[in-house]
Structure formats: C-alpha cells, structure tokens
Write a structure and sequence with these properties.
Length: 182
Amino acid sequence: MSRLFRNTIPLFAVLFGLAVASCESNFKEVQKMGLSEFTPSGDADSINLKYTDSGRITANLISPKMLDYATVAYPFTEFPNGMHLTLFDKNGKQTYIDAKYAISHKTTNIIDLQGNVKISNQNGELLETEQLYYDQKNEWFFTEKKFKFTSPKGVSYGEGIDFSKDFKKVNSQKISGQVQSE
C-alpha cells in the first residue's frame, strides 16, 4: 500500500466523521424547527371575570395571569400563576376553588386544576388534593388522586372521588377516617 493511500484513509475517516456529526447537528436543528410552539392569542394580567346566566352571576374568576390559546386546533385557556374561582348556585350559595395552576379546555368544557387544589363551601366543607377536574357542563368534580375531605362531621382521606359542586352527591373510593353519623 502506498504511503499516500495509508495517510488518506485516516484523513478521509476524520472528514467523514466531521461531516456526519455536522449533519446530525443540522438535522437536530431542523427537527427543533418542526416542533409546534403555541403563542397565546390573548394575554391578560390581574383578571377578574364575572360569568352570568340570565342576568344572574354564576361564577367569578380571579387570576394574576391568563393566557388564551383560542386559535390552536384544540383551544384552551391557561392560568399559569393560579386562580381563584367562586361558583354561585341558584340560591346564591357559594363554592370556592383555589389552585396553583389551571387549564380550561374549550372543546370539552373540562377545567384541569393542579397544585394545592382546595374547594370549599359555606357549610364548612373542604376538599384538598393535588389535581382535580371540573366538568363545567355537568357541574361535577372528579379526581383519581389522594384527597382529604374535612366537614363539620369529621375528616376523611381517600384516593379517588367525584362529587357535585355543592357536595350534595359524593362518590368516593378507598376512603378512611372518622365521620360522625347523624
């Protein structure tokens, strides 16, 4: 084998390796460009929204930040810095909901509440969990996460619960604790 040929093969291998590494790097950059990034069509700070039905306030939403993604394929509204929601029933009784993060899906009318979620009412009932879903259409809450439920009758713990917004109908799973009977 000639000396030139022996020196060319290692040089060719190094150049080929650099070219492949360069192509990989460029390919990764092209892949990154293909990722969809959502840009909100609306951005609001310090919001205080009141929802009405037939002239009656049904809900009051307060949040330090709201991002609206109304122009994406599956529109949603995000509350990255938390939210406080007050729901009003037809008799004016209130249910209070607090979460560190929330996302409302417009096509399903489901709100996903996350991070130190607390829901309480004027009767002294309080449910605490890390994630809770709210079905706006059916006015129904549900989670498969662990929860703590405190009422004037006692405290109970469980994993998995669903209930009406006024706590009148409650279905729980894997429950423990002491509750006074009537």
